[in-house]
Amino acid sequence: MPALVLNRILNDCDIRAIFSLRKVCRDLHDFIDEAIPCIHLTYIQVEVRIHEICLILSNDQEIITIRYQHNDGNGCTVKFNDTNHLLDEENFIEIFAKDLSLILKHQSPKTVLEVFSFQCWDHEDWYERQRGQRSWDCLSVIDNDGAECLMKPLIEQIAEEIPEQRIAARALETYGIFPRHTKAILKLFRAGTLKTIKIYDPHRIRIENNEGYTSDEDYLLGLDEIYDLEQWKQADELTTRGFHVARGVPIDGFGGFSRGNVFIRDFSAEGIARLCEIFLQSPNFENFTVTMPLGPHSNFFVSQPSETWKAKLIKQFGEPSNFLKFSKSDDFMTKSSIGRENDNQKNLRNFIDDVIPAIQLTRIKIEVDAKTVCLTIANRQENIKSTYEKSTAKTLANDLELFIKFQKSDPLNIVKLEWRDTDFKLDGPLDDSAKEKMLEMECNERQSMMDPLVEALNEISAAPMMNVKILETVGVFPWEVKPLLKLCRPGTLSCIRLSSPHRSKFVTFDCSDDPEDYSVDLDEIQELEQWKQAEVLNILGFCVPPQVSVASYAHFLKGVVFVRKLTVEDIFYLSQTFVESPNFDFFTITIPRCKNYSELREVDWITELNKKFGAAAEISQDPDHSNIYDWVVRSPERALQLRYYTPNTFNFTVKEE
Fold first, then answer.
1. By the number of CB atoms within 10 A of the CB, which of 136, 154, 266, 541 ranks highest?
2. What domain range is 527 assigned to?
3. What's the number of domains the chain is made of?
4. Which of 224, 65, 213, 28 is nearest to 134 (CA)?
């Protein structure tokens, strides 16, 4: 069969089909190993037992299980696709290691594993043994009978087949595996990509009283200098469970993590001070918990441990009122308001500003009306609203800057700025003079509130920038949103929504006598990096003026825009740009149908576009859609459909062929 045909077949195969095809014949086996068709796994789990290894693969749509078993006689058995494959004179560990290496080689470079889990499980009868005797009596049996005998040859074989830093995964979890073996596994992962390390229950025994081990010496383990690996140093989160880190491990080995939960055998007040010093200097630190054992052999605890440690901490830090506790359970308003409640304590507010406790906001909203400005901040559990009088815009800006500092690295979903009209009570219809007077009143009230706010936002420091996905405005002009847009981090901001800056109840966008009423200059916000790197644009309730080039919004992948004027050359330029964009989705441009707007009738769009594209438009056969005309623009990679809804709307979409 030709290579081209085989490649096309392999591109449509999942991992289950690819592995089955490799076993059809030697030629197909060699071709697949050479072609390396891509798979997209998100989860890999390895379960190790005596005489058996289980490999579990997942891509979020399906789960595939492969079992490698040692045969008592000779060779091994591989169970896959409900079929047993007997392999004479083969070692099940070697076959597993080769298959895992092949799977990782097939893994798409664009897909990062979410979790790689490596587990070593007990003998089934070990659970029975534990019922009749204390769990720690089994530790020596477990060590000698399983872990070392099985894990050492397995780790060595994997290291032969898989080069270091080959595996791209965000999290590594180990169960029943000692740190010395975890270190060898960790070397296989790509430093920087790996963000989470979890080491659970190396002894493979679930202790009923996890907070206070009866015999803590049995659960002491060294880290075997795992903290010297780049994979460890560049990770963000560490969790250990089921053992205590032995004395002698340098405390700095935990200082690089942003989040963590560990059990440590020896931890001094000086060690706490050292960790505080490291964490204070870390810009991304969030929370870290250290727990010490409470067993009878814990010689660093005395009869009144709380008083002893209180004395040690006071000696190290001073009286408790001079330091704060920030923990994951604190709500974000408690953290952010402590400084205001204690302004008389000079060092306290400075401490808060320097420490910058992390909070997890999802939404910020600023609402402005003729009398007040409201700032609403929200996380997934609650909304908190603060109101500021007309003369306190500077205070609001300072508070907003503080929340930006406190925000965790996870981006906000949305930041919204909204002007709310005064709710006028009308006794009856208004004539033109009354409308003009009302509009003037609105304008004066609006500017008296918006101008000080814009000025205050302009004074906010540009660093740190605000991580937010969506910026939305309602009733706000582009020059008023510009300072807020500058605070957003380019690249993180993906969507910009600008709606109805005129936002008046006395005129309507669709039937204004003059389109100039709704032409609003963008005030060069299209020159900002935040605009250039965003992907979605929605402009509603106003027209982009003619002096703004269509090139300023041709980079967006999705969008809806109203424009004051459009030419055939503009439509052709956008078509050529969108069809070359690999991730383009759709874009709609509309010229509003205002009462005195005759320019729509001055262009015979269908004739002119037929000339420009060199082909006649396809006319809808549906009599209910006779006002629709289509053109198809092609590039080597994709096709784009331009649809013209007469008389004033153009829609660009990717055409499936």
1. 154
2. 349-419+434-611
3. 3
4. 213
